[in-house]
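DM between two lab members

TW: hey, do you still have the TetR family transcriptional regulator entry open?
JB: yeah, one sec
JB: this one, 183 aa:
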Amino acid sequence: MPAGVRRYDPDRRQRIIDAAIRVVGAKGIAGLSHRSAAAEADVPLGSTTYHFKTLDDLLVAALRQANEGFAQAVADSAALADPEGDLAGALARLLGEFLAADRGRVELEYELYLAALRRPALRPVAAEWCEAMSAALTPRTDPVTARALVAVMDGISLQVLLTDATYDEPRTREILGRVLRPG
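TW: and the structure you got?
JB:
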């Protein structure tokens, strides 16, 4: 290909996002740069800055993609959609499956999520995740209880990740049940 001619590459932006997620998974957020993402994606450095003007833009895209997993599982869950089903039990089971499926991926998602503490550009995306989770639970409960369930599941997930504790599904079911049945 002659110098200066661009090759059409419609998947390049997605490959850069995927590469950024892999870099953060391997080296943490501190290890992510346009250069490290470009090297991981095997694209020219200029491609990363073309698609993502700032590193925060790249982190926003990575966080948005990472957030899709659990919120989508909640939204798609037949057990959660059943109005007669055990909501606390279904959520506890789903959370256990999420934590067991790929712990490294869950750690990565939380690292990106918590990066919003220091990077204000990420805060709207973190808020979107909370909203999506709450919206998925609202058909089964009221909005305030849905937010409480999301907060409790976040807390339980962080405790498991930070303490290397084994996930305790029956205990989680009991805790979520108490949120659903106050008093």
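TW: got it. Residues 177 and 183 are 11 Å apart (CA to CA). Residues 1-5 have pLDDT under 50 and may be disordered.
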